[in-house]
Amino acid sequence: MDFGKVAATAIAGVDFALPPDGKQTAMTLKGLKPVKSPDFYIGCAKWGRKEWVNMIYPPKTKEADFLDEYVKHFNSIELNAVFYSIPNAELIRKWRIKAEENSGNGFVFCPKFSRTISHIKRLKDAEVPTDLYLSGISEFGKFLGPCFLQLGDNFGPKNFEVLENYLKQLPKDLEVFVELRHEEWFSDAEMRARLFDMLAGLKKGAVITDASGRRDCVHMELTIPEIFIRFVGNGQEFAASDFARIDDWTARIKTWLDKGLKKVYFFLHQHDEKDTPILADYTIQQFNQHLGAKVAAINFIDKPKEITKQRELF
């Protein structure tokens, strides 16, 4: 993931402190009570990393079998694979079967809307590709988690009505989180309030993206009592910093759980994904220890010693 990437020399100067909760968060959680057993889903954005062979995938695992192994370690995936083309029902069925046969952890796929809808059609006259997308992902059955609609950097507030109308046309029971990237959605106070009020009214979630170079996307606005966080780490060299950021998220999520948050989706990214299982492993441990999550630990075959050492020192 290159979104929000900054030069390595600039990372030390980034203020990673999480902002205060937004106004919509207070309204969304007002009057709710803590849930006895909230749901936690922690995963990555892809399963096809050759570097994970001998780390979490058995030696000589073929690429065709990467998903079979991935679902043994994680209970969810932020599915970016369907972004590049309308999902084929037969392929979705194949992925579902792999999850059925190899996972025992309530695994869910969280598919991104295809770019034909979000970036080419820009949500206009998108009924046909949307129907095809929905038809394809329906093959996930009980393995389908929330979908997320990512809009491009140039999709700004002038498209408010387009976004609202599109969301209104989606099936009411379809779980959707929306990721917005144009800076004016967050810098214009009036538009910001209008946006999150609209999402709350339609019972659609707001993705929070925590990337080094776009701190405005860490908007801290909950429009439903669930969160979908896309966390972008900076890799092995900055492991200690990334672990500290995970600790901060753990503390903030704890305050939301105390106020009635029901479900947590937390997806780990890095600009170089080879060490993402290490970051995910740390996240799972912190959530289990401090938030009462019961997510199974990742079963490493071989964990890179230099990162393990950094974590122990931290």
From TrEMBL:
Q: Which domain of life is it from?
A: Bacteria
Q: Which SUPFAM superfamilies match?
A: TM1631-like
Write down the InterPro entries for this protein, in alphabetical order: DUF72 (IPR002763), UPF0759_sf (IPR036520)
Entry-linked Pfam families: DUF72
Q: What is this protein called?
A: DUF72 domain-containing protein
Question: What's the source species' lineage?
Answer: Bacteria, Pseudomonadati, Bacteroidota, Sphingobacteriia, Sphingobacteriales
